[in-house]
Design goal:
This protein has about 425 residues and is of the alpha+beta class. It has a single domain, classed as Cytochrome-c3 Hydrogenase, chain B. Helix content is about 50%, strand content about 20%. The chain is built from 15 helices and 15 strands. The strands form 5 sheets. It has a 4-stranded mixed sheet. It has a 4-stranded antiparallel sheet with strand order 7-13-14-15.
Length: about 425
């Protein structure tokens, strides 16, 4: 028996590794080890006033803080029976789009593209392909600008509040975003061509899961046509070798993220994104997890088009800048939002004083944990003995990178 250790994945967010167990020349098992320590955010919210919670939850992740804030306020608003206005919903969606643009650009151009072009990192890649790296950084900066405007700052913002915002953007700020989104379309279209050329690898996805609207939702949907509350069909299980739990849908391994969003909700895409999806539908329908990279590139087009639509609607309507009044009461609510990496769940119970009595958070990487492990197993079986050890480990790392994991977010409190 031989054990091959990947001590730490490179070019991913957070700390994780893998163990590949080989017996008699055959890959027997793969364990995806997420060993970053639990951060106890659910426990930290207990007993706190609901108003403080979204700001606290924004500290879970620096890359997708705004999605945590939005999922948090949505769960709180449902518990307190607060219905946000159309203006508030559009501005939150604008923030989510900015985060998606920033995160996808970071992942595709700086973390994945070096694999395609044969470099160990983006700095070395820039020596020969500087234009592509600059385009990625430009798109990323635009997403960060939107996120800073809506969330209050680029990292761990505190502007998204139950019932509205601390500060609303000005018409001039929205006009600037509208113009910039149009100018960046050319760069994003080039990215689709680049990532469509990547050879498919990893496991094939049997079940896709996403929210019922593109970036938020009232329910979850799956590729078998079901619509459900996460408590009804998602089963979480603990592992002896990982601080992140694994999730199953109806007892089956599933995937969340850009690829599931495209496969389940392509009818909601903007015009150019929908055309590009149709152009690559046959490839995407092969279902390999590596196609998540291409799906993210198509989502960059969607996000830039949708940003233009939202800013135009808001400018045509005019900005009222009014928050919705909140009446404290006992209640329970689930907030669903799509982080760049997939479905995010924030579930709260609030007592009659407005304090958090129960908190549960499930992140995209925790949802994808089992699919990541399966993909590593499939790739290990496919390539063990045919590649030297360095190339073998490189392919396994590429498989993990395709999920765009946020390992720090995935650690989850387990009560024993």
């Amino acid at each position: 028996m031989v054990s091959i250790e990947i001590e730490a994945f490179t070019r991913v967010e957070g700390n994780g590794g893998a163990e590949i167990i080989v017996e008699n020349g055959n890959v027997k098992e793969v364990r995806l080890k997420i060993f970053e320590g639990p951060r106890f955010f659910e426990l930290l919210t207990l007993g706190r006033n609901y108003w403080d919670v979204p700001d606290l939850e924004a500290r879970i992740c620096a890359i997708c803080y705004l999605t945590h804030s939005v999922a948090s306020v949505r769960g709180i608003e449902k518990a307190l029976k607060v219905k946000p206005t159309r203006e508030i919903e559009l501005l939150r969606e604008l923030g989510l789009l900015g985060e998606l643009i920033e995160s996808h650009a970071l992942h595709l151009y700086l973390l994945v593209a070096p694999d395609l072009f044969g470099y160990s990192d983006a700095l070395r890649m820039a020596s020969k392909h500087g234009e592509i790296v600059k385009e990625g950084i430009t798109i990323k900066a635009f997403g960060n600008h939107i996120r800073e405007l809506i969330g209050g700052r680029e990292i761990h913002g505190i502007n998204i509040k139950p019932g509205g915002f601390g500060r609303y953007p000005t018409p001039e700020e929205l006009e600037k975003i509208e113009k910039q989104s149009k100018a960046l379309m050319r760069f994003a279209r080039r990215a689709v061509g680049i990532f469509a050329s990547q050879e498919p690898f990893g496991a094939k996805v049997k079940y896709h899961v996403a929210t019922d609207e593109y970036l938020v939702g009232e329910k979850l949907i799956a590729s078998d046509g079901d619509s459900f509350d996460y408590r009804e069909k998602i089963e979480e299980r603990s592992l002896s070798y990982s601080f992140a739990k694994q999730s199953l849908y109806k007892g089956e391994i599933f995937m969340v993220g850009a690829l599931p969003r495209l496969m389940l909700k392509n009818e909601k895409l903007t015009p150019m994104a929908k055309k590009l999806f149709e152009d690559h539908r046959e490839l995407l329908e092969q279902g390999y997890v590596s196609l998540n990279n291409l799906a993210q590139a198509i989502e960059l087009i969607y996000a830039l088009e949708r940003v233009k639509e939202i800013t135009k609607e808001l400018l045509d309507r005019g900005i009222d800048g009014e928050n919705v009044p909140i009446e404290v009461q006992e209640g329970e609510g689930i907030g669903y939002a799509e982080a760049p990496r997939g479905v995010l769940v924030h579930h709260y119970k609030i007592d009659e004083k407005g304090n958090i009595a129960y908190s549960n958070i499930i992140t995209p990487t925790a949802f994808n944990h089992a699919m990541m492990e399966l993909s590593l197993y499939e790739e290990a079986k496919r390539n063990y003995g045919t590649l030297d050890e360095s190339s073998f480990i490189q392919r396994l790392e590429e498989t993990v990178r395709a999920f765009d994991p946020c390992i720090s977010c995935s650690v989850h409190v387990v009560k024993l």
